[in-house]
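Schema walkthrough. Field components (list of strings):
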Amino acid sequence: MRDGIETAKRGLPTVALVTEEFWPQGDFVARAAGMPDLPRLRLPHPVAGTGEEAMTELATEIADRLVDGLRATAASSR
Amino acid sequence: MTAVESQPGPTDALWAESDAEAVEWLHREGCTDGLPVVVPRPELVDRMVLASGVDADVSFGIMGPGGGETTMSKVAANAVMAGCTPDHLPVVIAAIQAMLRTEFDLGEMQGTTHCIAPLLVVNGPARRWSGLVSGFGALGPGHRANASIGRALRLCMINIGMARSGESDMALLGHGGKFTSCLAEAEELSPWAPQHTDHGYRPEQSAVTVIGTEPPHSVLFTGDADDPSSAERLLATLAAALANVGSNNVYFGGGGQVVILNPEHARVLADAGLDRSDVKHRLAAMAVRPLSELARFNPAFVPPPGDDPHRPRRAVRSPDDLLVVVAGGPGLYSAVMPSWAAGANMNTSVHAEIVTGQVCEVPQSNLESRFRPMR
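Field assembly_structure (string):
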């Protein structure tokens, strides 16, 4: 979440990827940074270490939502 | 950073029918460490602020991860909750000042999944008049100053830094050191100068050194006066603990670590002609593992070997990254405290002078008082 905040602060279209177990921390960090509405996608936990096949499947599943989110933040910043 | 909007903080006035009801409220709102606290009644907090000699509104800085303003009144409220007396306050204040230094990365340290917790090491005359213990059980239960001062810092981290398990303090398991972790160095039993002189203090100054650490790893060692290799064996044992393959340091190639030598073990090294600087240099050189060995355990955290798969990976990047402290009872066991070895400043130690001149005498009252006149 912190990475997403840093890129968003630099004016780049941003969607943070946050896994289920860290979703509450994502909310906390976004609020603490004054960016409670920073776009984020909720992923199952864990992602790291689940192997290439599982990660490819997940990436395929969220790709459209991710691109839509990036387009939306790019549009709203104009 | 804007402060997290949340329930009333410790400087808002709250009302309860009784102390017991107040404690229940504090538990429910997540303002405790899970153990009972002393209710921060206004008169107790005011007394603590008065005794500090620091104005209530003075801010020491912003505390992460929640971004709370660290005012003297909030620190005093948490010190009261922790069971501190005014004698403890100068140490608490110095530790807060040290921990809020940018290079300590407190916000990030609070939020990591690693079990890291700040350790406070106190040197100088402050040890005596605050009642801090450096001998048997210095990191264990039963010593009021050690327990209360460490706990005051933790309650500040909870109530000002807004660290809550699973939400903003993501330590996967946590441990007892996250309740309190504070000791004095056993300067009188140390064969060397007090460890805060390594940071530029004079021995007669008081200072607190703070570093994020894992809990202590016990290190077993028995010397033998007839064995000239005793000191080398002790160094090798400590080094193996510093470079242990379960801790982050050897994978990340550095980060602060703490070595707590009991007075007997310190004597073994001193009798071999080593001073603390020698000990730090030797340990830094010896605390290594070949990349090929590390790759057996956690290849994801091992840098590419390049030409030499047996290239040693250092667990201690520089001798200055080590704290070597003499404490504990004499005997078989010393301790090593590895660390998170991460954050922008790679888990460096910080320190601050303990200033006692500001502390004032607190007038006795008719109420039963825990406070003693200041020296």
